[in-house]
Amino acid sequence: MSTQIQVINDFKLFPSGTPSSICLGNFDGIHLGHQKILMTCLDSAKRRNLSSLVFTFEPHPTKILRPEKAPLLLFSRDEKRQWLRHLGFEFILEQTFDSDFRKISAEKFIDEILRKKLQAKVISIGPNFRFGFEGRGTVDLLKKQTDFEIIEVAPVIQDGVVLSSSRIRELVSLGEIEAANRYLGHPYFLSGTVERGFERGEKLGFPTANIKTDRECLPKDGVYITILEDLESSQFFTSASNIGFNPSFENKQRSIEAHLLDFNDSLYERRVRLFFLKHLRSEMKFKDLSLLKAQISQDIQESRNFFHSMNLLRPPTENNSLSLSHVDFLTQRFQTYGTP
To answer: Which of 102, 112, 101, 110 shows the shortest CA–CA distance to 142?
Structure first.
């Protein structure tokens, strides 16, 4: 599902005369718990013939309130917008969170923003969301209002753990991609542009796409089984990718390099998305290039075996639609990740 969506950065710009169903939260990563809140909001909008609105903040409030503890975000702003557009929301309010907005009291937030300007009729919210000056606004405070329908959405629990963005960030940083993917409900990915690197892979016989990204939260350094999507052609390629400093060559900067299986063309300067499916191994330093080449060959064979086992290895001329714009196909192929 997709729809036109209007993005605004200040509650004052929300169109008047638009009664709304609102969900409140940061929604970083849009994991299964977030998806539950978002779908509850959409359902209530449809049930009561209201506009659907995601109320989030930009930048993440912690970056203003406690910058030294600000989290590395799982999604970029554009990636979050794409998910919300796909789900079918009509409005995204990316409220600018600055020194002035942070001073708004919880009571003023409810009365002037939610009630008067956004004309909220239904508010969907997680149990731990806080709002207003010093986080004094709570779900209980909202429930005291008589002119809102407040839906407190219970958290999602998997493996005895309450799903949270902070837990998923931890898993990603540890390289535990398969666990992170289960909690997200979709494969972890990053978006970026293919740029020229040192071209060492090509000289070794394993050419790679060197990806430049502004994604904050990157998987632990190592080798991963991945799928690369060329966003310009909507083609998908099985791949094995390395994140790190290439210790055999003693790089000074971290790089993200994807070797595409059975691919002999160029993707330079193209926008791509890289999905992480499985962690293969940590980065290693090799004494000579022959050992490095042997290990890369083994990594590629393990990747092939994985794709064969998932029935995903297709001729390179066929599209393999594993993208946010093809979520139905994605969930058919990765049943364990759930339905976005």
So the answer is: 110
Residues 6+ apart with CB under 8 A from 184: 29, 30, 31, 32, 168, 337
Name all domains of the chain by residue range, CATH numbers in brackets: 6-161 (3.40.50.620), 177-337 (2.40.30.30)
> What pairs with residue 8 in β-bridges?
93
Q: Helix 165-173 and helix 177-184: axis angle, to 10°?
A: 160
Q: In the predicted model, what is the mean pLDDT of the chain?
A: 86
CA distances from 88 to 25, 49, 92 (A): 17, 14, 11
Residue 248 makes CB contacts below 8 A (sequence gap 6+) with: 284, 285, 286, 289, 292
Measure the CA angle with vertex 75, ends 69 and 80; round to 5°: 125
**Model pLDDT for residues 72-97, shown as the tens digit of each residue:** 999 999 989 988 988 899 999 999 99
Q: Which of 193, 166, 295 is nearest to 242 (CA)?
A: 295
Which residue did the predictor score with more confidence, 312 or 302? 302
Residue 71 DSSP one-character state? P
Determine the Cα–Cα distance for residues 75 and 79; give it in Å rounded to an integer.
6
Convert the pLDDT of each residue in 199-219 to its tens digit. Answer: 665 656 688 999 999 999 999
